[in-house]
From TrEMBL:
CDD domains: DUS_like_FMN (cd02801). Its EC number is 1.3.1.-. The active site is at residue 108. Keywords: Flavoprotein, FMN, Nucleotide-binding, Oxidoreductase, tRNA processing. It comes from Hallerella succinigenes. Residues 19-324 form the DUS-like FMN-binding domain. FMN binds at residues 21-23, 78, 147, 177, 232-233. Pfam families: Dus (PF01207). Belongs to the dus family. This is tRNA-dihydrouridine synthase. Catalyzes the synthesis of 5,6-dihydrouridine (D), a modified base found in the D-loop of most tRNAs, via the reduction of the C5-C6 double bond in target uridines.
């Protein structure tokens, strides 16, 4: 049986799954939803990334992206920027919020981040990345981790150098997304290269990219020597995936999620959103529609009529009325939720989602 846990200094990560931070998606309500649906079996949760440029301590500590709850632990705060002193200052300030670790982002590919030298832009300036890691490490007492890509483009694959810098500057874990910055989210992640990094590393390496199914997650853990897998866009379509992976690692038989059960998550998600002081019913409705649009793709048989109805709802009340009607229909017709039908045989999505197109953060 595959090993189902690892350590980041004094942090026990069990099971060995991570929810990748995604701007505009993985806020506290969505993270809590995934954790509930997993049966509280998620290894690590991370904040949406936080810019360190030009922010006062008050602004840093009161950003909506930094709201988290005790049940989310172990929990990390991810920061991005290009100025070592600002990164270190922000890390020091944000440690007062009591995260379990601080993560440096050297992987975001979106132009307004990477184009300004932050995120994956740091992969074009490894001396600067080295200085950032050095200063952040000195500024915090909690573990420091790094997330990166394999390089800027196919002609500058430098992830092995990044690993050496991370280890040399005291990083306690490295998460590697198996694409270059130029690839964005197109093509396939290079898991052979992730495996080479994991085999050479003295610190835990977590692999990221195309982990869209239980089958592929288990393959990555068995074949590529990574300590864990980080799941991003697949969680948007299948928030049960963490629990499904945990079941497989525990040797449990897979269970079928019905369409009726899938529809029940909307209320849980809405309630989590409305617990936030900054949430409004109208704003929550928009997020409900986003989730519904993704989940509807997994219903068997497909239900374009239901998708159209919920996406044209004018209020949360109307949304839930239409969901309840559909739940009765789904139960009567024994409909199931099968997002794996969107995957091809090696577990990767056939229709790559453009992160840059959907989320401009």
């Amino acid at each position: 049986m595959l090993k189902n846990e690892f350590q980041i200094v004094n942090i026990r990560v069990s099971p060995c799954t991570v929810l990748s931070p995604m701007a505009g998606v993985t806020d506290a309500p969505f993270r809590r939803l995934c954790r509930v649906l997993s049966g509280n079996r998620m290894g690590l949760l991370v904040s949406e990334f936080v810019s360190t440029d030009g922010a006062s301590p008050f602004i840093l500590k009161n950003r909506k992206q930094l709201i988290f709850y005790p049940e989310e632990r172990p929990f990390g705060i991810q920061i991005f920027g290009r100025h070592p002193e600002r990164m270190a200052y922000a890390a020091h300030v944000l440690e007062s919020l009591k995260p379990d670790y601080i993560e440096v982002n050297a992987g975001c590919p979106v132009p307004k981040v990477a184009g300004k030298g932050g995120g994956a832009g740091l992969l074009k300036d490894l001396p600067r990345l080295k200085e950032i890691l050095c200063e952040v490490k000195k500024a915090v007492s909690v573990p420091m981790t790094l997330k990166c890509r394999v390089g800027w483009d196919e002609n500058s694959i430098n992830v092995m150098e990044t690993l050496k810098i991370a280890e040399g500057e005291g990083a306690d874990m490295l998460t590697v997304h198996g694409r270059t910055r130029v690839q964005g989210y197109n093509g396939f992640a290079n898991w052979d290269l992730i495996g080479e990094v994991a085999s050479a590393a003295r610190i835990p390496v977590v692999g990221n990219g195309d982990v869209n199914s239980v089958q592929f997650a288990l393959e990555c853990l068995e074949k590529y020597d990574v300590k864990g897998v980080s799941i991003g866009r697949a969680a948007m379509h299948n928030p049960w995936l963490f629990g499904e992976i945990a079941d497989a690692l525990e040797g449990k038989a897979p269970r079928v999620v019905t369409a009726e059960e899938a529809c029940s998550v909307f209320k849980t998600y809405y309630d989590f959103m409305m617990e936030e002081s900054t949430s409004t019913p109208f704003g929550a409705l928009g997020r409900l529609k986003q989730l519904a649009a993704r989940l509807c793709k997994g219903f068997v048989p497909e239900t374009p009529e239901f998708r159209q109805k919920v996406l044209t709802s004018q209020s949360p009340e109307e949304f839930f009325e239409r969901v309840e009607l559909f739940k009765d229909y789904a139960k009567t017709n024994a409909m199931t939720f099968a997002p794996e039908r969107l995957m091809n045989l090696n577990g990767r999505k056939e229709d790559t989602i453009s992160f840059e197109r959907q989320f401009k953060g």
